[in-house]
Specification:
The complex is a heterodimer of chains A (about 400) and B (about 300). Chain A has about 400 residues and is α/β, with parallel strands linked by helices. Chain A contains twelve helices and 14 strands. In chain A, the strands form four sheets. Chain A has a five-stranded parallel β-sheet with strand order 2-1-3-4-5, sandwiched between helices. Chain A has a four-stranded parallel β-sheet with strand order 7-6-8-9, sandwiched between helices. In chain A, strands 10-13-14 form a three-stranded antiparallel β-sheet, covered by helices on one side. The relative contact order of chain A is 0.12. Chain B has one domain: ABC transporter involved in vitamin B12 uptake, BtuC (Orthogonal Bundle), CATH 1.10.3470. The chains are: A alpha/beta (about 400), B mainly alpha (about 300).
Chain lengths: ~400, ~300
């Protein structure tokens, strides 16, 4: 009996050792190409509520890596990417980022997808001194500027500026805002309130709704009798579509302005007829075809879109572009800096006229985003499709 | 001072969501009665009902009634399976471990649903009838709202009839009152638990189907609905069906009035404040008197 147990134990130990060796060998496999690879880490919300962000971001990061490696890498160095899923959870994000830095020895990190998660890891990347190019939108990520933290998405204030500009041009000065109660909505609300006086706009009603609410008629009824001249809604799909539908139900004919959070064909699918007449600031990827020939981004956008749709066989969204641009900016910087992380950070900060999917980036020591409100165009939905508002 | 029409609109919104909370709450109550456990997969039944209905009606093109029936039958079967595979085999069943098992089942079902239906929410199903709002004293009502309220009322009548006038219904009720005495009288308790799970599945499916046209169904829609339904069940007094109905409706109405008259920032908070208040003042629920008596 004892012998048998011993035998089993020995077998078990052998198996474990074999496994470890096997795994270790797998990891130690020499990379193709002649030079050391540059390892870039990625952390995205690939599953969970925000998978609509994380999935295209992961896809774009992989696609960028393949494209660059096929073209011979960066000065002969191939790119390797290690991507983890944070599931939208901030604790997980922290652990993943520590792992990327300490265990995977990445030279730079792309992501996370969410603003809250990005803010949570800023102290870590600052301490460990690793360049982070976030794919999250909040302006707080880059204001105040943290030495090692950059971001590629357009900021919420750019979208809010565009919206107010549009409303002002229409002679609208009293608006009601309805925002989703999460980080995205709160940031939008903050920017809308902050910028309103600058554009001479008065917010006469502030409402909010829960991410998974199914009925917003109560909030809209309140707005209806508030005397607002337009409604600005700040949320991500599908909540704002319910608002558009509820407005039709309640017979509210006020102009509805959505945020860039719904800028995807899904919105039209969700809201159906109710989407017609909605106005929103959108990244240019959505309307790449309609851009004028001399738009500086036109070529970059069409290239990215065609490659994405060919590789993954799904329609492109603007979100993947955040990771694509982050990779683009990092690899441009790597050409200058080589594998020295201090030089890499400096090179990222000096990014100039980089033409990306989200806009044209001009970074500086004071501006770690590098975009302006020109990254957005105002579009209106007509007959179930987007149209640029001049 | 808000207009009468506005308040009416809040009430309509509240009754609509209240109907759903009430049906989900009844699902909780039925299983609680039969097994003394809280089935945290109740919200998943709602989600499955909605998604299966959408699949049948949209992708296979079945008519509304057929898809409705298919969806209810499928989720009823899933309810049975859950009892047979997850609850019954537990060796030493005690409420706490069983409740944790239902949480596991809920996560499992969500995962499967995510694989099957994908991560994106689906556009709403076609409404049961027209989409033109009806003007009601200045407030507008969607025809689908009337369907939701109507179907909820029909379910309540059928359930009442089932528990009061059919042998099986009475047997389930007897088990709930005193399981031991009921089994001494020849009622098979295990079968009654099975029926309870099936019935909860069916109820969940129906609530999922009737809201499919006004919401965007997705694999994760069940969590919040389940939680709100649970609140409704506790407010009314866990295990009481009339309590579940009152709890569900009052929760929906308070939420909507609160969002409209106070602030929408506190919409979800209102539900949980009411829950806490009830637990502090009348831990046995609004309906039950004194000691918890399960019927």
């Amino acid at each position: 009996m004892l012998k048998k147990k011993l035998l089993i134990s020995i077998l078990l130990i052998f198996t474990i050792v074999a496994c470890v060796i096997f795994v270790a060998c797998g990891e130690g496999k020499p990379p193709e190409g002649t030079s050391e690879p540059y390892i870039i880490g990625g952390v995205f919300s690939i599953t969970g509520n925000n998978s609509f962000l994380g999935e295209p971001e992961r896809n774009s990061m992989n696609m960028f890596k393949d494209t660059i490696n096929e073209a011979g890498g960066i000065d002969g160095h191939p790119i390797e990417v290690i991507i983890y899923d944070d599931e939208g959870d901030s604790t997980r994000t922290v652990n993943i980022v520590k792992k990327l830095i300490e265990k995977d020895n990445v030279i730079a990190i792309v992501g996370p997808s969410l603003s809250g998660n990005t803010l949570g890891i800023i102290p870590i990347v600052e301490e460990k001194e690793i360049p982070l190019v976030s794919c999250a939108a909040s302006i707080k990520i880059t204001t105040p500027v943290s030495k090692w933290v950059f971001k590629t998405p357009q900021s919420d204030n750019h979208a809010a500026e565009r919206i107010y500009e549009y409303l002002k041009n229409r002679g609208i000065s009293k608006v009601a805002i309805i925002t989703v109660s999460n980080g995205y909505g709160d940031s939008g609300k903050e920017q809308l309130k902050l910028l309103a006086p600058i554009f001479g706009i008065e917010i006469i009603n502030e409402e909010s709704y829960g991410e998974s609410d199914t009925d917003m008629t109560a909030q809209l009824t309140k707005i209806k009798s508030s005397g607002a001249e337009a409604i600005v809604c700040w949320g991500t799909n599908p909540g704002p579509a319910i608002i558009a539908k509820n407005m039709v139900q309640l017979g509210i004919t006020l102009p509805l302005v959505q945020s860039h959070g719904v800028a995807s064909p899904k919105y039209i699918e969700y809201a159906g007829e109710a989407a017609n007449g909605n106005v929103l600031p959108a990244g240019k990827i959505l309307i790449a075809d309609m851009l004028s020939e001399n738009d500086p981004q036109r070529e970059a956008l069409l290239n990215y879109r065609d490659l994405y749709e060919k590789t993954y066989n799904v329609p492109v969204s603007g979100f993947g572009g955040y990771a694509w641009d982050a990779m683009g900016i990092i690899s441009e910087a790597l050409k200058v800096s080589g594998s020295d992380k201090y030089l890499l950070r400096d090179a990222i900060e000096k990014t100039e006229d980089y033409i990306g999917v989200s806009g044209v980036f001009n970074m500086s020591a004071e501006n770690h985003n590098g975009l302006t409100k020109d990254a957005f165009v105002m579009v209106i939905i007509e007959n179930g499709t987007w149209k640029i508002i001049e | 001072m808000p207009h009468f029409a506005d308040i009416l609109q809040y009430l309509i919104g509240g009754i609509t969501s209240g109907s759903i909370y009430a049906i989900v709450a009844i699902g909780f109550a039925i299983i609680y009665n039969a097994t003394e456990i809280i089935n945290f997969a109740q919200g998943e039944f709602v989600m499955l009902g909605a998604l299966i209905y959408i699949s049948f009606s949209r992708f296979f093109g079945f008519p509304l009634v057929v898809s409705f029936a298919f969806s209810v039958v499928s989720v009823t079967i899933i309810g049975f399976i859950m009892d047979l595979l997850v609850i019954r085999p537990v060796k030493k069943p005690n409420p706490i471990s069983l409740i944790i098992i239902t949480i596991g089942a809920s996560i499992f079902i969500q995962g499967i649903a995510m694989r099957l239906w994908g991560k994106d929410p689906y556009p709403s199903a076609d409404p049961f009838s027209s989409e033109t709002p009806i003007n009601f004293f200045g407030a507008s009502i969607m025809p689908q709202t009337l369907w939701i309220i109507g179907i909820t009322l029909i379910i309540l009548v059928i359930l009442h009839f089932f528990f009061e006038y059919t042998i099986i219904g009475k047997a389930v009720k007897a088990c709930a009152i005193n399981r031991r005495a009921a089994s001494l009288l020849g009622i098979k308790a295990k079968k009654m638990v099975l029926i309870s799970f099936g019935l909860s599945g069916a109820l969940g499916a129906i609530s999922g189907i009737i809201i499919a046209p006004i919401t965007f169904a997705s694999y994760k829609m069940g969590t919040m609905l389940g939680l709100k339904g649970f609140c409704g069940a506790v407010i009314g007094g866990l295990g009481s069906i009339p309590g579940a109905i009152i709890g569900g409706f009052s929760l929906g109405i308070f939420e909507s009035l609160g969002a409209g008259l106070i602030s929408s920032d506190f919409k979800d908070a209102i539900a949980f404040v009411i829950l806490l208040a009830v637990l502090f003042i009348r831990p046995s629920g609004i309906v039950n008197k004194g000691e918890i008596k399960r019927v």
